[in-house]
Amino acid sequence: MEDVRAAAARIAPYIHRTPLLHSRSLSEIMGIEVRLKCENLQRAGSFKIRGAMNALLQIDPADRPRGVVAFSSGNHAQGVALAARLLGMPATIVMPENSVQTKVKATQAYGAEVITAGVTAATRDTVAREVADRTGAAVIPPFDDWRIIAGAGTVGLEIADEWPEVASVVTPLGGGGLLSGTSIGIGDGKDVYGVEPAAGNDGEQSFRTGEIVTIDPPNTIADGARTLRIGDRNFSVIRERVKDVVSIEDGPLLEALKFAMYRTKLVIEPTGALGIAALMTAKIKPKGPVAIVVSGGNLDFALLS
Questions:
Q1: What is residue 168's DSSP assignment?
Q2: 291 closest CA partner among 145, 118, 161, 177
Q3: Is the pLDDT of residue 73 over 90?
């Protein structure tokens, strides 16, 4: 918690304190009060700027001219690219060839060099570290890093500060940065749940077996959760602090995404709607009041057709 509080103070000048909006529609469906933590309204379109900025601000100013390199399918890429631009640092982002093109273009628009040629979800880490070895840039991992976890934890800290009565928190799960960080930042005595796409349910399998499970690159509309395994540091926290992890098929996820957009008028990407889908399908039946973290809003609008 001390690390999360330090991160909150460190990154405050650079990020938005996002709203925690009451959802009448979801509250009526669930029979308990539901609020949405709208990280889709965050800078760069997702919570990822929190961890990225926390990590970059801890790089020695003398080393900043060498820049940073990150590997990501999208939102972490944009978060690191924007954080680097705000601090005047060069950034190289390694993204799989099948990344959502709107996220690739947004990353480039923040001034980062993007490498996609021949990159897959399985090789992006290796390619990024090769770039770091060649240039001396600092590697900024997407989730398995204490600086990233502490930055993401500021989401939970803000929820607890604004809504002390909250009893449960539901967050998307990819590599585990948001879930592990939020479970710390929200404090003790709260039920915390993680939700991931069924095609990429390595986190659910890991949570059930007690050991990290690695999967093949998953085929899911939730592109922000196309991770192959949960992070070691993240898993150590999740095992201790999270109540349950569940998964959702893409069909119900897309329906929940559309419902949420129609009723809340918010732009939400599929990964950001995982928590909403879990409640609407009763995969999670939390005690109330409950906060759902809408992790991002970088939607590929072609998906809706």
A1: E
A2: 161
A3: no
- Give me the amino acid identity at 15: I
Give the strand pairing for 20-22 and 34-38: antiparallel
Class (C level, CATH) for 2-46+145-304 = alpha beta
Report domain extents, the chain.
2-46+145-304, 49-140
Q: What's the Cα-to-Cα distance from 216 to each of 95, 173, 226, rounded to whole Å?
A: 17, 16, 9
Question: Which residue type sits at 222?
Answer: A
Per-residue pLDDT of 78-137, as tens digits, reads: 999 999 999 999 999 999 888 888 888 999 999 999 999 888 888 888 999 999 999 999
Contact 64, 87 (CB under 8 A): yes
Take residue 246 and report the two structure tokens written for it: 């569940």
Q: Is residue 305 pLDDT above 80, yes or no?
A: no
First to last CA, the chain: 43
- Whether residue 300 is predicted with pLDDT greater than 90 in this model: the reply is no
The catalytic site residues sit at: 48, 73, 196, 200, 202, 295
Fold for the domain defined by 49-140: Rossmann fold (3.40.50)
CA 293-296-299 angle, 5° bins: 140
pTM to 2 decimals?
0.95
Average pLDDT (174-198) is 97
- Angle between helix axes 75-86 and 48-56 (nearest 10 degrees) is 40
Helix spans in 168-227 (H): 177-185, 202-209
Q: What is the mean pLDDT of residues 258-272?
A: 93
Q: How many angstroms separate the Cα of 280 from the Cα of each of 21, 256, 304?
A: 17, 7, 19
